[in-house]
């Protein structure tokens, strides 16, 4: 028995329970096996979605913690640069101290912003890649 394109298309557009009813009519001996496979597949998909959601929550927490640590380190870096610039100013070298402080804080802020943007891009690309295909 071969199916033409219209029969195949009509089969694909049916709801799962309608497909099961057709299986029961066409081949009652294997309909229960098909339903068991469909049920197992649905349970597997549900578990995978649950695991994916749990993984995404963990990754969100890790991303937040990483950004918090980066912020603390960046603030520590700026404080150290301020201390070094203060030392330069005490020794009479105000311009080199300010130049070093300005360049250091600019680089620190730039690195923080770039890391933040990369984190957002990786999160959005991950969200796009995990959307189910319809």
> How many distinct helices?
4
Please state the average pLDDT score: 80
From the alpha-carbon coordinates, what is the Rg to the nearest angstrom?
30 Å
Residues in β-strands, percent: under 5%
Largest sheet, in brief, is: none
Oligomer: single chain
Unreliable spans are none
Strand and helix layout:
Elements lengths: L4 H8 L3 H11 L1 H63 L3 H36 L5
Helix pairs in contact: 2-3, 3-4
Short overview:
The chain is mainly α.
Structure explained in plain terms:
The chain is mainly α and 134 residues long. It has one domain. The protein is built from four helices and no strands. It has helices at 5-12, 16-26, 28-90, 94-129. It is rod-shaped. The model has no long low-confidence stretch (mean pLDDT 80).
């Amino acid at each position: 028995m071969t199916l033409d394109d219209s029969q195949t298309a009509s089969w694909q557009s049916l709801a799962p329970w309608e497909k099961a009813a057709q299986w029961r009519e066409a081949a009652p001996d294997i309909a229960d096996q098909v339903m068991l496979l469909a049920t197992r597949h649905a349970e597997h998909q549900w578990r995978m979605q649950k695991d994916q959601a749990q993984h995404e929550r963990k990754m969100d927490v890790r991303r937040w913690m990483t950004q918090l640590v980066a912020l603390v380190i960046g603030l520590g870096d700026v404080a150290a640069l301020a201390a070094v610039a203060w030392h330069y100013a005490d020794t009479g070298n105000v311009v080199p101290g300010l130049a070093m402080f300005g360049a250091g804080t600019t680089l620190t802020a730039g690195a923080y912003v770039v890391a933040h943007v990369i984190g957002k891009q990786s999160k959005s690309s991950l969200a796009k890649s995990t959307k189910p295909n319809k």
